[in-house]
Write a structure and sequence with these properties.
Length: about 80
């Protein structure tokens, strides 16, 4: 069975979950944001930057203090601050 492209697109659109909540042409969908929530707040990141910049506390100890992995610190703070550690 061969349906015209317009008809098949209309049929398949009904099967996408949340299709009615989306908006056309790239506009945001009713205030919803996707993705994983951030592990560290802006205030925590500022504290982490201060601790790492002082070079008194090892990165591993800072990560343990905030309950994250070292890689999370490097991703959020940036590797340039930890070059000396």
């Amino acid at each position: 069975m061969c349906l015209p492209a317009r008809r098949s697109a209309a049929i398949s659109w009904r099967f996408y979950p949340g299709a009615d909540a989306r908006r056309p042409e790239g506009r945001p969908g009713r205030g919803r944001k996707g993705g994983r929530p951030k592990k560290l707040s802006a205030k925590e990141l500022k504290t982490i930057r201060t601790l790492l910049h002082s070079n008194e506390v090892p990165v591993q100890d800072v990560a343990a203090q905030f309950g994250v992995n070292r890689s999370t610190l490097y991703q959020n703070v940036g590797a340039s601050n930890q070059a000396s550690n």
